[in-house]
């Protein structure tokens, strides 16, 4: 970090930029940053010819959860404009499921309990019946 002090003119320029900035700008930028960072942590965004960092699926999951939390704050004002961002998030979520073997629960959720064989009927045991929460 630099020990340089800002001049009065530089400080005024920074203040002028802050006056132009909106909360929506920061939320949108944060949303995009989380998706990009999540892709990097999943090992999906390594530049060609470079060896990427080790995958960190916990960080990927946290980035996905953060992006999902921000979406509702932005949808009311930016609904259609968010389509490409939502698509990128959906692709990241699919990659996460594939990379984690489809077994990782969402953040904060315990792993789903499998019902005992006696708790299910024949259709459910066959895997052809969708039951909410199971």
Task: Write a brief structural summary.
With 134 residues, this protein is an all-alpha fold. It has five helices and no strands. Helices cover 56% and strands 0% of the residues.
Largest sheet: none
Strand count: 0
Overall number of structural domains: 1
In percent, how helical is the residue content?
Answer: 55-70%
**Helix count from the secondary structure assignment:** 5
Instruction: Return residue spans where pLDDT drops below 50 for at least 5 consecutive residues.
Output: 110-119, 122-134
Helix/strand class: mainly alpha
Q: Can you write the helix and strand succession as a string?
A: HHHHH
Beta strand %: under 5%
List the quaternary state of the chains: single chain
Alpha carbon gap, first and last residue:
52 Å
Mean pLDDT: 80
What best-fitting shape do the alpha-carbon axes yield?
A: flat
| Radius of gyration, in angstroms, nearest whole number | 22 Å
Descriptors:
mainly alpha, 56% helix, disordered C terminus
Written overview of the protein:
- With 134 residues, the protein is mainly alpha-helical.
- The protein has helices at residues 8-20, 23-41, 57-78, 83-99, 122-125.
- The chain contains five helices and no strands.
- α2 packs antiparallel against α3, α2 (23-41) runs parallel beside α4 (83-99) and α3 packs antiparallel against α4 (83-99).
- Mean pLDDT is 80; it is low at 110-119 and 122-134.
């Amino acid at each position: 970090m630099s020990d340089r002090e800002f001049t009065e003119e530089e400080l005024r320029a920074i203040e002028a930029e802050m006056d132009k900035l909106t909360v929506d700008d920061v939320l949108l930028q944060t949303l995009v940053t989380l998706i990009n960072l999540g892709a990097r942590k999943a090992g999906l965004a390594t530049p060609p010819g470079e060896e990427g960092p080790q995958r960190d699926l916990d960080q990927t999951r946290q980035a996905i959860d953060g992006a999902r939390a921000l979406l509702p704050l932005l949808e009311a004002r930016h609904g259609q404009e968010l389509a490409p961002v939502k698509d990128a998030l959906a692709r990241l979520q699919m990659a996460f499921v594939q990379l984690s073997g489809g077994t990782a629960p969402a953040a904060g959720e315990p792993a789903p309990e499998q019902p005992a064989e006696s708790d299910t009927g024949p259709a459910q045991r066959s895997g052809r019946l969708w039951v909410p929460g199971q």
